[in-house]
Amino acid sequence: MKKYNLYSLLIFCVALVFTGCDGEEESEVLQNRKIAGVAINVSGFGKVQGEPEDYDNIDESAVSILANELSMEVTEGSVEDASLISNFEVVKTFNGGDEVLVDTFDALPFTVNLSDISEFVAGLTVTEDDLKIGDQFRFTVKVNQTNGESYYFQGQSFNLTVNCFADLNGTYTVTNSVCGSGSSGSIPPIQITETPDGAWELQTADGGLLQYCTSNTALVNGGKISVVCGVVQPSSDVDFCGDYGIGCIQGGTWNQETGVLELILNDDFFGNGEYTATYTMQ
């Protein structure tokens, strides 16, 4: 039934496109559509890390900031109409609050560099002493046009969460509670790398279930996790979780001292239900 509905939707959309392309109505839409003037690429890295006074009550505990930085590099993608562009701004919000201007730029490319926590909270209604684990800074590029309109590149925002220090970068051996070290006897070592906004990219995020516990040896189920003070947050950001329910992350723990990541996962597709996976840094 899912395939039928999907194909039906695709057929409907294609028919709509072909019908509109030859008509005046579609031409008007294309002629009058609103554009930002330019597409951008955003890269770089950032973090806001500290130590809570009370690990048993991190939601309310004050945080001593130990490391913080932002290097946000914005370059030009494709240009739609450069004559529309007046300037660019980088704006920030704190926990979804009011927008605050960080800096203004006349043209691309440009870089925003912040190296002190005072720069992160400047212009906000909070101070460094008010920060808590889980608070979020969001940095977004805004293009202002010559006609007074503005557009936000929301999909490329930098989202930095106040967090405890963690370093999961490395190579890991993996086992899981479904097939141990793999149905063929071995799950090859996997890589975990940090993403620019402080999350963690797992080369294999389901503990090897799909690729090494079934016959689907060519399917790699990668994904991302977020770790807040040693606790893995629930996530469906796993390649075969959303559509198939394979390897959806329910939670887990990270031990910085031992280098062991424990994940609690769920598998609906093969009927294993909840299972666990252990990643041990080599």
Shape: globular
Give the second-level CATH assignment, the architecture of the largest domain: Sandwich
Report the CATH topology name of the largest domain: Immunoglobulin-like
Q: What is the level 1 CATH name of the largest domain?
A: Mainly Beta
Low-confidence stretches: 1-32
Average pLDDT works out at 88
C-alpha-based Rg, rounded:
23 Å
Fraction of helical residues: 10-25%
**Order of strands across the biggest sheet?**
12-11-10-9-17-16-15-14-13
Distance between the termini: 45 Å
Q: Tally the helices.
A: 4
CATH superfamily of the largest domain: Immunoglobulins
What is the makeup of the main sheet? 9 strands, antiparallel
Number of strands: 17
Number of domains: 2
Derived from helix and strand composition plus strand pairing, the structural class reads: mainly beta
What proportion strand? 35-45%
| Secondary-structure element series | HHEEEEEHEEEEEEHEEEEEE
Tell me what the structure shows.
There is one protein chain. The protein has 282 residues and is mostly beta strands. It folds into two domains: 38-164, Sandwich (Immunoglobulin-like); 170-281, no CATH class. Helix content is 13%, strand content 43%. It has helices spanning 2-21, 24-32, 117-121, 209-212; strands at residues 38-52, 63-79, 85-94, 100-105, 110-114, 136-145, 150-152, 158-164, 170-176, 190-194, 200-202, 223-225, 227-228, 231-232, 246-255, 260-267, 273-281. The chain has a nine-stranded antiparallel sheet, with no helix packed on it. Strands 1, 2, 3, 4, 5, 6, 7 and 8 form an eight-stranded mixed sheet that branches. The longest helix has 20 residues, at 2-21.
